[in-house]
Structures are given as structure tokens and as C-alpha cells.
């Protein structure tokens, strides 16, 4: 409430975040761990109170949170009966706002905590959804604290670190009503489209298939197109007709033989399969014809040796989709699990905000700061030093969609501080960040062209020149393979095996989670 000071009344600043854990972390930073905490009457949210300065004025701070959206959109009750309401009516039916979680009594809780407060500072997540919740909070507290645009502020932040939170507090803006309204529009579209098509297709399929074991066949603006990807791939697999093909299989022995100029290769003997330039043919007779032209050959003759320096590009900065894809394919973690772990890491101050489409670091981003922190941590010292020694390569240009910066580590910790999935995901984020600051991987590709009779074959190999970013992401390392060593045109290799191989074309695989 209000606290008396000599000759004046101390003002109270109400601050609201999106989750109880965020309210705890932010209040801890802003109060210097001096906040007193109590449970709210709804038992879901805590309230943290302390004294400090706001805009050069001593004030009493009161920080609490919501639990996601305060309100949700629904149709009026008269449209609830599926049999009395044509699905098409739902495109124009009247809607209403109602409490998203009535059990939490969130509007009443916010109104009670707003009593006696003079200023509102909104610490909701900095995306469109968070902007919409800002105005839900404003609606809930406006009567209790006589809100005006002048005493309503918006904090903009992308990480739960002391530097970021204090910077946000010193640079408060205003909530963006247009972004909030765009979410209202999207919610209304989702409601109308989802309910209308769900009712329509459920009744349609129940009428078409009498034994349909489902009370509801739901339609979702996101889920149904996603299902479409799976169905399209399934249809391709079902309609696939395999074709038989034939190819020439030739294997040579390399190592230990002498070159025409007298040079010898004292390396170990190895059997090397060759790639046929024609790859494969779809008629047995044609394969037999080509085989007849080479079956009497005893050696394969080198006709050309080509060396090319190649590079494997470092990754772009990490956004949400890439984080989910990598966690699925590399860590075996599903999207829901990954986002839950990422949200915890974010609220605890280990990584930046994990919901972003941006893959480009802003010009003002301090690339060296996180690297210096990581260098001070034994688990990351070697990799961080490698990035510094490489001169912190300028990151690849990505897309800046104007939401949040890419996902980066905000605190340097080792495996002794995190464990399980939290460590695995944090390690992935750290390695990705360092990889974006290391140079591209460089390797040499050697392609050896050979003839067996009149037919052309080849084999290739790679030699690593500079591991670059793969020091941080070793699972993406360039695999070294031999390409017949040092060879020259005219050199001959004995053929150890020649024949016709048979195979069949195959359908594509079903989509993996990471591909989807």
C-alpha cells in the first residue's frame, strides 16, 4: 500500500510479468535480492515487494505475474449446441471475452493487487502474444488504479540478466495496441475457422462412416496443414512404383603398386569401389552391353586428377525452428519438451528469449561478451579461446524479422550446475553460438577420373584443411576419406572385381519429426 514519508505520500509501482518464475527472477534483480515475498490470494502467483527509486523518485515496488493469457475468446452459449447451429453461422456469430482460467480468479487478483498503486510497468514477454496480455492486464487493473496512458509503461527485454533487466527499466516504453489488436484478430480467426470446420467435418464424416469411432474430428489452422505434409508424403509412398535398375560394379586395389614414372606407393593396400559415370541404367540388356566392353580389362587407368578447395559454411544465428529441429534430430527431444526446457533456462537466466524467428545478430549485439564469459568457465575455455584466436569471424548474414535477437547463452556454466535435458539443451545453444563465430570448415576434395576399357569411372576423397566451426559442432565435421593417395594421369590399378549390380528405386521415407 502507500507508505507515509515526511510531508508526502510514497507512490507505489505495480509491475506484472507473464509467469510467476519471471516475476521472481526480475524482482530479485531489481531489488538486489531485498524483496519480501508473499503468496497471492489465488495461490498461483506470488507478490514481491521492496523499496527503490523510479524515475529519480523513492517508491514502493510491488511485482507479481499472470499465468499466460488472462482472457480467452468464445461464442455466446446459445451457439454451443451443434444440432441447433449451422457450422456456417459461426463465421458471423457473436463472441465474448471470458476468463481463460476461472479457477485462478486472475482479473480479481490483479485488481486487488492494483489497489493503491500509482504506476503500472508491464513485463510481459516481448512478442505479439505478450503485447496482447499487456492490454488484458490493463483492462483488469484500470478501475482499481485509475490508469492513464501517462502512468502505463512497457519494459522491453530479451534475456533475464542483470544488464538486460536494468537496461529495460531505464528505457521504458509504451505498450503497442496495434500489435495487441492483431492477436485479437488472429484469435477470432482461429476460433471461427477452427470451430466451424471442426463441427462441419465431424458431422460430415459421422454421416459418411456410420462406424466412425470419434466424437470430434478437430480442424486447426496450424495442425491441419501440418497433417497435410504427412499425408502428402504418405500418398507419395503408397503410390510409388519401384523400378529395377542395373549398374556396373568395379573395384580396384590401391597401394603398393608402381607408377609408370617409377614412383611407388608404399601405403597399405586397400580395395576401392569406383563410381560409374552413367550411374545406372534401367534395362538389363544395356547394362550387359556396357559390361561386355570392360569385362576383359585388367586395369583401371587414371585419366585426370582434380583437386578443389571447398568450404562448409558455419551456421546462421539460432532461432526457434532451428533449435527445435536440432533438438529433435540430435538430442531426441520433442518440440514440446524442448520449449519447456528452453523456457526454464530463459527464466533462470541461462539463455536469451527462446521464441524468435530472427537468424541475424543486431548490429548493437556484443558478440565478445558471451565469449569472454564462456572463456572463464573451465567447461568452455578451450572452445571460447578458439573463437577468440580465430578473431571472432563475422557471423553469416541471416534474416532479421524484427522480433527478438537470436537465441544465445546469457550465463556461462558447466555441467556441475545443470544436468539432464537442461544441460543438453544449454550445451547445444552454447556450441551453436560459438560455431557462428568460428570460420567456415575448409577441406580439399580430390576427384580421380579413371577408364576401364572405354567406360569412365571415378572415385573421390576429402582431406580436412581447417575444422573451423566444427570444433564447436563436431557432429557436423567433414569426414576424411582417401582418394587413392597422390596419383598422376597414366597410373594403373589392378581390377579385383567387376560385375553387374542390380537394385530397385525406393520410395521416400516417412517424415521425421525434425524434417516436419
TrEMBL record:
Catalysed reactions listed for this entry: ATP-independent breakage of single-stranded DNA, followed by passage and rejoining
Domain Topo IA-type catalytic: 176-516
Cellular component, GO annotation: nucleus
Biological process, per Gene Ontology: DNA recombination; DNA repair; DNA topological change
EC number: 5.6.2.1
Record keywords: DNA-binding, Isomerase, Topoisomerase
GO MF entries: DNA binding; DNA topoisomerase type I (single strand cut, ATP-independent) activity
CDD domains: TOP1Ac, TOPRIM_TopoIA_TopoIII
Annotated stretches, region: Disordered: 394-414, 492-516
Principal EC category: isomerase
UniProt cross-references to Pfam families, sorted A to Z: Topoisom_bac, Toprim
Domain Toprim: 12-160
Function: Introduces a single-strand break via transesterification at a target site in duplex DNA. Releases the supercoiling and torsional tension of DNA introduced during the DNA replication and transcription by transiently cleaving and rejoining one strand of the DNA duplex. The scissile phosphodiester is attacked by the catalytic tyrosine of the enzyme, resulting in the formation of a DNA-(5'-phosphotyrosyl)-enzyme intermediate and the expulsion of a 3'-OH DNA strand.
Family: Belongs to the type IA topoisomerase family.
Protein name according to UniProt: DNA topoisomerase
Amino acid at each position: 500500500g502507500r507508505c507515509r514519508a515526511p510531508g508526502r505520500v510514497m507512490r507505489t509501482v505495480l509491475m506484472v510479468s507473464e509467469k510467476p518464475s519471471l516475476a521472481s527472477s526480475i524482482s530479485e534483480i531489481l531489488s538486489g535480492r531485498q524483496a519480501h515475498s508473499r503468496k497471492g490470494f489465488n495461490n498461483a502467483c506470488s507478490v514481491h515487494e521492496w523499496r527503490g527509486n523510479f524515475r529519480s523518485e523513492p517508491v514502493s515496488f510491488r511485482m507479481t505475474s499472470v499465468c499466460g493469457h488472462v482472457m480467452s475468446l468464445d461464442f455466446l452459449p446459445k451457439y454451443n449446441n451443434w444440432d441447433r447451429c449451422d457450422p456456417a453461422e459461426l463465421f458471423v456469430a457473436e463472441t465474448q471475452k471470458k476468463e481463460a482460467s476461472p479457477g485462478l480468479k486472475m482479473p480479481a487478483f490483479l485488481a486487488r493487487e492494483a489497489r493503491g498503486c500509482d504506476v503500472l510497468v508491464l513485463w510481459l514477454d516481448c512478442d505479439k502474444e505478450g503485447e496482447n496480455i499487456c492490454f488484458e492486464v490493463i483492462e483488469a487493473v484500470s478501475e482499481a488504479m485509475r490508469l492513464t496512458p501517462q502512468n502505463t509503461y512497457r519494459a522491453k527485454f530479451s534475456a533475464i540478466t542483470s544488464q538486460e533487466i536494468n537496461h529495460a527499466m531505464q528505457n521504458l516504453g509504451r505498450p503497442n495496441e496495434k500489435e495487441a489488436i492483431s492477436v485479437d484478430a488472429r484469435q477470432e480467426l482461429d476460433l471461427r475457422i477452427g470451430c466451424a470446420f471442426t463441427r462441419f467435418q465431424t458431422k460430415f464424416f459421422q454421416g459418411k462412416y456410420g462406424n466412425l469411432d470419434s466424437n470430434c474430428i478437430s480442424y486447426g489452422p496450424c495442425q491441419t496443414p501440418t497433417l497435410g505434409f504427412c499425408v502428402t508424403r504418405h500418398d507419395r509412398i503408397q503410390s510409388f512404383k519401384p523400378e529395377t535398375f542395373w549398374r556396373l560394379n568395379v573395384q580396384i586395389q590401391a597401394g603398393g603398386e608402381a607408377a609408370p614414372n617409377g614412383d611407388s606407393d608404399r601405403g597399405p593396400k586397400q580395395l576401392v569401389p569406383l563410381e560409374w559415370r552413367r550411374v545406372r541404367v534401367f534395362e538389363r540388356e544395356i547394362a550387359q552391353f556396357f559390361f561386355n566392353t570392360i569385362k576383359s580389362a585388367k586395369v583401371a587407368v587414371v585419366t585426370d586428377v582434380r583437386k578443389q578447395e571447398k568450404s562448409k559454411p558455419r551456421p546462421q544465428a539460432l532461432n526457434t525452428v532451428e533449435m527445435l529441429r536440432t533438438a529433435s534430430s540430435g538430442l531426441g527431444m520433442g518440440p514440446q519438451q524442448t520449449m519447456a526446457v528452453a523456457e526454464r533456462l530463459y527464466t533462470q537466466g541461462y539463455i536469451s528469449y527462446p521464441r524468435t524467428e530472427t537468424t541475424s545478430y543486431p548490429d548493437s549485439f556484443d558478440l565478445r561478451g558471451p565469449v569472454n564469459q564462456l572463456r572463464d568457465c573451465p567447461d568452455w575455455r578451450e572452445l571460447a579461446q578458439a573463437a577468440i584466436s580465430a578473431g571472432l569471424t563475422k557471423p553469416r548474414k541471416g534474416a532479421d524479422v524484427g522480433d527478438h535477437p537470436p537465441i544465445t547463452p546469457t550465463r556461462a556454466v558447466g555441467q556441475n550446475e545443470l544436468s539432464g535435458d537442461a544441460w543438453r539443451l544449454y550445451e547445444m545453444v552454447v556450441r551453436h553460438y560459438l560455431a557462428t563465430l568460428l570460420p567456415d570448415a575448409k577441406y580439399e576434395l580430390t576427384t580421380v577420373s579413371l577408364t576401364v576399357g572405354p567406360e569412365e569411372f571415378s572415385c573421390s576423397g576429402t582431406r580436412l584443411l581447417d575444422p573451423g566451426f566444427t570444433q564447436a559442432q563436431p557432429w557436423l565435421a567433414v569426414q576424411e576419406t582417401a582418394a587413392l593417395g597422390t596419383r598422376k594421369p597414366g597410373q594403373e590399378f589392378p581390377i579385383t572385381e567387376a560385375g553387374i549390380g542390380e537394385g530397385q528405386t525406393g520410395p521416400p521415407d516417412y517424415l521425421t519429426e525434425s524434417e516436419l
